[in-house]
Write a structure and sequence with these properties.
Blueprint (H helix, E strand, L loop, with lengths): L2 H23 L10 E7 L6 H20 L8 E7 L4 H12 L4 E6 L3 H13 L3 E4 L5 H4 L8 E3 L4 H14 L5 E6 L2 H16 L6 E5 L7 H9 L4 E5 L2 H13 L8 E3 L8 H5 L8 E5 L9 H14 L12 H21 L4 H8 L5 E2 L4 E2 L17 E5 L5 E3 L2
Parallel strand pairs: 1-2, 1-3, 3-4, 4-5, 6-7, 6-8, 8-9, 9-10
Antiparallel strand pairs: 10-13, 11-12, 13-14
């Protein structure tokens, strides 16, 4: 046989042997020369791109810390970022690509519940661990899959609805109205608000819906005022949230209502999106973390130092944009690293099982005791929630 054909046959034989071994033995543990890849699927270029950048920065800080101390299982972690632009179809393509990429053990997800919900089938078909760093829809985690590959360090709408409704009551409001985006996130929030209202014997006066891309919500807001609302409970992302604020400002001062908002409005450059001074609107919104007032200052100090050192566009803690995204991603990466070490392999099914059985961990946001269990894949609850507002310079600061 000619030498070039002999070499070809040898390569083919080795390829077939490797494939057979992989089929019998399952995924192989990476070696020191092969990185363990953590994918990321978020909005990096559309209306909520600030959230995507925040998640990326938090994940990268954690990855660099882990790699500096030797990595995981003798390998370095590597972040691979894909942009879904807030588009469910693009998100599904991204998950398909990451799920089929050798070395990818998990993917960190970003903002937009509709995107995350659209990705669930592909996530579970590929047995790809999905680490939710933002999307708050209850069904993202309570998705009916067994085994469930979705784990979240973020808000859960079931808890957020009650927290926000009680926050409105605590601020002296008795007649809330709901202004909700017409998506899976909006519907999840509606259920949460209605359940909370029934539990606390609080009536919801009116509900108005809007679609992505809406340009004016003045009529919705006028109806609220006419029907006796005294506060607007808003569920919107930055673009439509800015439309809500501009529409409120367009009304006569006597018709304007205070707004208690979910946190979607913080995922973009909200001040720029509004495009005018909105300080006269009483606007507060949900947050889970503040670098200005951190839960554990001593733990935050190192992350803040790393953040400010790395990013020339930020010079003070107040300028850290979308802080919850950074904090959530940071803790998720450290929890994933613990699960990898516990599992002793990059086999996704075994790492998933390890995530359900982690030891206690003192994280940036809270002490996880533990973060997850087989019955609970949400690491945060209402005790982690707080209210914040925008400062005149656009910074997110704790509410009084």
């Amino acid at each position: 046989m000619p030498e070039h054909l002999n070499k070809t046959m040898t390569k083919l034989s080795l390829t077939l042997l490797f494939a057979a071994a992989t089929f019998v033995a399952g995924p192989l543990t990476v070696n020191a020369n092969t990185p363990i890849i953590v994918g990321m699927d978020a909005d990096m270029s559309s209306g909520a791109s600030v959230s995507g950048e925040a998640i990326k920065r938090g994940a990268q800080i954690a990855i660099d810390e882990i790699n500096a101390r030797g990595g995981v299982l003798g390998s370095q972690l590597e972040l691979r970022v894909l942009d879904h632009r807030g588009n469910p179809a693009r998100g599904k393509d991204n998950i398909e690509e990451l799920g089929e990429t050798e070395g990818v053990v998990a993917v960190v997800g970003g903002i937009h519940t509709p995107v995350a919900l659209a990705e669930l089938d592909i996530i579970h078909q590929n047995e790809l661990i999905y680490l939710g760093a933002w999307a708050a829809g209850t069904p993202v985690v309570d998705n009916g899959r067994d085994p469930n590959y979705v784990f979240r360090v973020s808000v859960r709408d079931q808890f957020a609805g009650e927290f926000l409704l009680l926050a409105a009551v605590d601020r002296g409001h008795a007649s809330p109205c709901l202004l909700l985006e017409e998506t899976g996130w909006g519907r999840s929030s509606e259920r949460a608000f209605k359940t909370a209202a029934k539990k606390h014997a609080t009536g919801i006066v009116d509900i108005q819906w809007f679609k992505w891309g809406v340009s004016n919500l003045s009529e919705h807001l006028r109806l609220f005022k006419e029907r006796g609302c005294d506060v607007v409970m808003l569920v919107a992302n930055p673009r439509e949230g800015a439309v809500a604020i501009r529409s409120m400002l367009s009304l006569d001062k006597s018709q304007r209502l205070p707004i208690v908002s979910h946190w979607g409005i913080t995922g973009g450059d909200f001040s720029a999106a509004v495009g005018q001074d909105f300080s006269e609107i009483d606007l507060v919104f949900l947050q889970t973390y503040s670098f200005i007032n951190p839960t554990h200052p001593e733990r935050a100090a190192q992350v803040i130092e790393s953040y400010l050192t790395r990013h020339d566009d930020v010079s003070t803690v107040e300028e850290i944009a979308a802080p919850v995204g950074t904090a959530h991603a940071y803790d998720l990466i450290h929890l994933l690293a613990m699960a990898l070490e516990t599992a002793g392999t990059t086999d996704r099914a075994k790492v998933r099982e390890a995530l359900e059985n982690l030891p206690e961990y003192n994280g940036l946001i809270r002490d996880y005791a533990p973060a997850f269990t087989p019955e609970r894949h949400d690491a945060l609850d209402a005790s982690d929630f707080s209210l914040a507002r925008f400062a005149p310079n656009g910074a997110i600061v704790p509410a009084e």
